[in-house]
Structures are given as C-alpha cells and as structure tokens.
Amino acid sequence: MDPEFMNLIDALTKEKGINKDVLLETIKHALQTAYKKKVGREEEVEIAVDEKTGAYRVFAVKNVVADDVEELAENDIVFSDAIKYNSNAEVGGTVSIDVTPKDFGRMAVLNARQVIEQKLKEAERESLYEEFAAKQDEIIMGTVQRTEMRAEVKETESGEKIKEYKQVVYVNLEKTDCIMYEKDQVKGENYVSNMKIPVYVYKVEKTTKGPRIYVSHAHSNLVVRLLEREIPELADGTIVIKAITREAGTRTKVAVFSRMENVDAVGTGIGARGMRINAVMRELKNERIDVINWDTDTRKFIANSLSPAKVKDIVVDVVSGRTIAVVPDNQLSVAIGKEGINVRLASKLTGMKIDIKTVSQFKELKANGALFVGVEEALQKKREEEAAEEAKKQITDDSIDSLFEKWDSLILESDDSTEKMMAELGVDSDENA
C-alpha cells in the first residue's frame, strides 16, 4: 500500500465525514480476506498498517503448544519453533509470524480500494437516511426536476385489466431526489422544471439503494408547519391547533385554542392586518386559510367552523349526529361556499354532518313538524316521560291498595251494605261478570 493510497483515505474521511479508524479497520478486514483467498486456507492473521507510509504487513497468529503434542491444529506451533520467532514465547501463549506474500501488494490494494468504495456508498446511504429521518414531519424546500405519466394496471370487478395513467413529479432535495405521487400533489397545480416548492416529509424508509423519501405538497401538516414558522405562539405552545382540514390548493380550515386567557388565539394566528396568515397563504399560492376558535361546546364550535357565515342557531340530533345550522337568508351561499366547500370543510373539522338552513326554511320545517329533536328538547322530553311514568305507577299502586282495603271491609258488612258499597265502587255483583 503506497502513501498516495493513505492520502486518498485522508481526503475521503474529511470530505465524506467517515471516521478514519473505522475506514482503516475496514481496509484491514479486506486485506485479511484477500490473504486467505490467496493462500487458500482459513488462517488466523492480523494486519498492521502504518498510517504515515501506507506500508502494511500480514502476521499469522499461532498458538504455542508443547513439543510433545502429536496432532497440531492449523493455527498451532510447537514451542521449539515458536522461540525462533519470539524468544519470549511461552506454551499456552501466542506468537505472531510475518507471512506477508511478496507479490501481495497489487492485489491487496485493489481489494482494499473496492472495499473502500463499497464502504463509502454504505456510509453515504446511512448518513443520508439519518439526515432525512431527522427531518421527518418537517418541511423541506424542494426543486421540481420533471414530471411524467406512469401507467398503473388495475383490475376491474369483471376481471378485466386496464391501464390508468397518473402524473408523478420528480423533486430534488439537494442531496437526493424523490418522487411526489399524485395523491401528494395539489390538484390543478402545474409543476414545471426548476419550480421551488415547500414539501412536507411524512415518511422515510431505509432501503439497500438508499433512503426512500415520501414528500407531499398537499398534506395538512404542511400548513401546520408553515403556520408554526410565522406564528411564534404556535411554536412555543401558547396557542395550539386542535383540528385542521384541507382541500389543497383551494381552502384550509384551522381550529385554534389559547392556553392563556389573555391571548386571542384567532387574532394571534392571523396577525396584525393579516400579515401572518397572508405570508402562509402566499407560500401556498394564495390558498385560502380560515382560522377559527375551537370550543368545548359543540354548538359553538360548529358555528365557528362555518365562518365567515354568521350562524343564528345550531340544532343537534343526538341520535344521528346530524346538525342543522340556521343562518340568515342572505348568508346561505356564504355558509355553503363555492361548490359546497365551506360546509364540507366545516363538517370534516367538527366531525359532524351539517345541513345549512335559512331562518325561513327552519321556520317552515318547524311548522310542518319535520324538525327532529335537538339536545335540550330530547333531554326535556325524556324527563317528562320519566315523570309521567312515575306518576302513573304511583297512581296504580295507590288504587290497588285502596281497593283491597275496601274489599276487606265489605266482607264484614251486611249483604245490603256490600251491594251498596260495590255499587259505589262500580263493581258488578253478578257472579258471571
């Protein structure tokens, strides 16, 4: 091994960040393998490398045994021979013997180079994986390289196989490339070469060919991370995001809650004159973001979720979970939103199925008896039913006790009195009655 080889190792350790000791150990292992392959036997050897000159030696390690041992193992040497190599050799110890082949240099260096190259590739893959694994659940700025249509074969219910073409986007993340699949793209957005886009890293897998990185431009958490960049109170936990739902490229709704009474969660999120929220919207090509107050009161939360519509009343069906939001007649289109997006996102945000009705529509439903029972009405009705059932039971019990008391008195009285009393009670004296 020549000095140039050692200089190469020094350069690689500095450039690639690989520990020099680890690399030298790898080279020694490669030289051991090369030696065993050359001599054609599994002999225990040690490699000594001079880090300054690059010179190396191969030493066979032998176990010292007594001279009278009849059968020697491959790595054994008798005492009388051992002292020829090391005057301090002792039975039971070991002795190292220089067995470096004369023509071993070229083959050893070639083998070591191959090992170094392989080690470098493995180290780069491992380093890259660790770097991006640490960035999982974070935003990275990517550069679009190109787009292409990929065919996917799908089988129909009838068993027919058809091809579906879906767009994939190749994104460069400086040190590596990744593929952004159709489900992670913003619908309708045109991705062109050299276009800069923020992407959310939602999964990193380790493979034999290097890390596989999954990124998204449509994930809801992309908005969360962008908001955290612009809103320090989100990053430090003063306000928290309780729920978020997004239709990428069109609109996002975010429900926020303040942990401090004197901090307005919505005002803090939007910022003075909307500066904070506008900065995030610009990052998302002007995708609209509604910031609303989260509330433990389901009715208030639903009303807030329909912002910017002004909600007059919320009626909840406790059985089906269906909800009617009552809005002024002139607020119907605002509450529903373009193509139903406002009410659709509100439903996803709250986990409730929401029907929008105007005040006049609601009155008509109520008048026609087509309105289901709300929470308070259901509880009141249940209380009234329970009270009525208890009263009925009490009346029945009292009537039976009274009847038996009067019947006992009838037995002691005369027949005339009995007939008179029975008549008073409305009991028929006919035995066939």
Which terms would index this structure?
15 strands, five-stranded antiparallel sheet, 433 residues, elongated, four-stranded mixed sheet, alpha+beta, single chain, 26% strand
Number of domains: 5
Number of helices: 14
- Summed over residues and divided by their number, the pLDDT gives a mean of 83
Unreliable residue stretches: 429-433
Percent strand: 25-35%
- The strand count comes to 15
Strand order of the largest sheet: 7-6-5-8-9
* Helix-strand sequence: HHEEEHEHEEEEEHHEEHHEHEEHHEHHH
- What gross morphology would you assign? elongated
Name of the CATH superfamily of the largest domain? NusA, N-terminal domain
Q: Find the structural class using helix and strand composition.
A: alpha+beta
Q: Percent helix among the residues?
A: 40-55%
Through-space gap between termini: 125 Å
From the alpha carbons, calculate the radius of gyration and give it in angstroms.
43 Å
CATH topology title of the largest domain: N Utilization Substance Protein A, Chain:P, domain 4
CATH architecture of the largest domain: 2-Layer Sandwich
Describe this structure in words.
The chain is an alpha+beta fold and 433 residues long. It folds into 5 domains: 3-128, N Utilization Substance Protein A, Chain:P, domain 4 (2-Layer Sandwich); 139-218, Beta Barrel (OB fold (Dihydrolipoamide Acetyltransferase, E2P)); 229-294, K homology (KH) domain (GMP Synthetase, Chain A, domain 3, 2-Layer Sandwich); 310-372, GMP Synthetase, Chain A, domain 3; 385-425. It contains 14 helices and 15 strands. It has helices spanning 3-16, 20-39, 79-85, 105-133, 220-230, 232-235, 265-270, 275-283, 298-305, 332-336, 341-350, 359-367, 375-412, 415-425; strands spanning 45-49, 56-65, 76-78, 94-98, 139-155, 161-172, 177-180, 196-207, 210-216, 239-247, 251-258, 288-293, 313-316, 322-327, 353-358. A hairpin with a 5-residue loop joins strand 13 (313-316) and strand 14 (322-327). 23% of the residues are buried.
